[in-house]
Amino acid sequence: MKISVLVPSYRRPQDLARCLAGLARQRRPADQIVVVARDGDGETIDTVRRFAPLFAPNTPPDLILVDQPGVIHAMAAGLDHVRGEVVAITDDDAVPHADWLERIERTFAESVKVGGVGGRDLIPGELGEPGGLHEKVGLVQWWGRVVGNHHLGCGGPRRVQVLKGVNCAYRTGLLRKAGFDRRLKGAGAQVHFELGIGLDLIGRGWQLVYDPAILVDHFPAPRQDYDRRNSFNARAVSDAVHNETFLLLNHLPPVRRAALLAWSLACGTRNAPGLLCLALEARSDRRLALDRWRATLRGRMEGLASWRRERTPRGMPLAASP
Fold first, then answer.
1. Which CATH class is domain 3-218?
2. Distance, CA of 151 to CA of 134 (rounded, Å)
3. Where's the Glycosyltransferase 2-like domain (predicted)?
4. pTM score, two decimals?
5. What is the mean pLDDT of residues 291-313?
6. What distance in Å separates the CA atoms of residue 275 and residue 191, rounded to the nearest whole number?
């Protein structure tokens, strides 16, 4: 089994250097490393070239340059150059543990039904205390609530419905069929793209496996767009909610689609509130709660509108990806 590693990167040279050093320390070396950088991002390009000597003479990182923004465009361009039967994906602000590829390869080898494999990303300050870890990871509940918790997973390997982009791997042919959905919104990080891939593969009869022993250290770095991670931005919230809503409506059956819309508008979550969560959050910061609720509502309506535009006249949903 040949394994390629795909790393999109943009204006994070120090983070990328740390990531490449981690890839160079793999006990099971990658057969190919593909780094995708933006045209004109000289620091990223120089970092890839400086770290090339760390790898075997015949496996220096392949550097792919793109001229459009967005992680989806970058990963799609990188995937076009992948040669391995399996492609492992991580972020430039993550450092894979030395047994990362070794464990990924072993999990794929255990069953031909496994289409995707992922693991835990250890985030400083969010490592989880005893009792704060979770066995419910990467699930889509019946009414459409997406449960993440990938960074707090515990227990043994288990089947899931969505993997996290910072620590995942797929059979290359399957990922090419699923595709990176270019209809998702976002200037840099098109949030929730992994959801569409996971649901597409499961819909085709493949399995996704999450193993918390497959580890990367994740140091979330600032994004180079209006989504600043830990500060509220209405457009970033709307984009994320749009993407999640659009992908779920594409893949859920009719009854579950109705349940999703009813639950999301009536209840929702803290980050994407419906009316109930709005009332709860407004007790501590009324203005912020209202702003987040408005942005969420806009994203839900935009996601619903996008989904409706993609349907045929008979009302059958089109494929989520080309």
1. alpha beta
2. 9
3. 4-133
4. 0.91
5. 90
6. 23
